[in-house]
Structure formats: C-alpha cells, structure tokens
Amino acid sequence: MSLTIYSESMKIHLPATFLVDLQALYPKTWVPHIIANIPKFYVEMSNDPLIGSAMGYFGQSQLEAYTWFRSFLMVEAFFQVPVFIIGLRGLWKGSSSIYVLLLIYAASTTTTTLPCLAVILSTPISPTPISATGISLTAEQSLLLLSSYIPFLLVPLVMTIDMAIRVQSLVAAGQEGQKVTKQE
Questions:
Q1: What is the four-CA torsion angle of 85, 104, 114, 57, rounded to 10 degrees?
Q2: Would you state the pLDDT for residue 74?
Q3: Contact call for residues 83 and 58 (beta carbons, < 8 A)
Q4: pLDDT band (50, 70, 90) for residue 53
Q5: What are phi and psi of 136, to 5 degrees?
Q6: CA dihedral in degrees (99, 105, 108, 109; nearest 10)?
Q7: Contact at 8 Å (CB) between 55 and 39?
Q8: Strands 134-135 and 130-131
Q9: What pLDDT shows up at residue 127?
Q10: What is the C-alpha separation between 164 and 100, in angstroms, rounded?
Q11: What pLDDT is attached to residue 132?
C-alpha cells in the first residue's frame, strides 16, 4: 500500500512541478500564455511567499531574498524530476533496486520542504494579504498553504523511514547470503 501512495504522490507532484514550480526557472518565451497564468492565479489565490518571490511577483528584493528557494527549484528540476520518472517505473515494475534512489530522493525532499514550511509558518498573518512591512497571509491563505505543503513533507518523511528499513532489510539479506556462501 505504501508503494502505491508513493507512486500517486509522484504522479501528482510531476505536473505541479512543470506547471507551477519550474516556471520560475524557464525562459518566459518557453511558456505558452495560458500555462504562464497558472502560477499567477495560484499566487493571487494563496499569496505563496515562496512561489511568488521566486517568480518575481513580489519585486526584485524578494526575488533576491529567495535565491535559496530557487536553488531548491533547481534540485527539483534536475534531481527530483528524473527520480519521479525512474521511481515510477521502478515502483510499477516492483523492483527493489529502486529503494536506494527513493531513499535519497525522500531524504532530500524532506530536507528541502522543511525550510519552505518554516517560511510559511513564519509569514505574518494579517487581514489583508500584503502589508506595508512585506508579504503577509490571511488566515485562510495560511491554512491553504499548510494543507498544500504538509503532505509534501509527510509523504517523503514516511518514505525516508520506509525506504531506510527496506534497504536495511536488503543489506541484511545480502549479508546473510554471503555467510551461507562462505560456509559452503
């Protein structure tokens, strides 16, 4: 069952990655107008300080302040996307050889999602989405963002623990097999 949750999570994450997250990295000429509106709509609705800043919607100073987040988007583009594809294939085939890669992916994703949640949790709550002091969220926007980001922390966190146990079991079985071979 957990493997199904992992594959479904990757299937959900992949289009979101291309349609929203990675638009901060694409040259503007690569993105059709209708698709370019997706992150605009999302940020207008949620006031997401991460995507809004990375896209430059909140001004140059916010864009520069969120360089760290843009580096996480690069990890998403060049590490996570290939892992989604390879991982989905490995999970579909039922291959245990994918466990090490999924362990690395899950630990990396957990590590990069935690600071994103910290930003959302530390963003001021106010009656209006943007205050004179900078970015703020309404209570509803904060709940929306938390409900969006928390699953992308919890699923990889559980996957990290699960894959570590699975890899450890494979290593233990391999070591046991070596002992039997040496005794013969």
A1: -40
A2: 97
A3: no
A4: very high
A5: -140, 170
A6: -120
A7: yes
A8: antiparallel
A9: 87
A10: 8
A11: 55
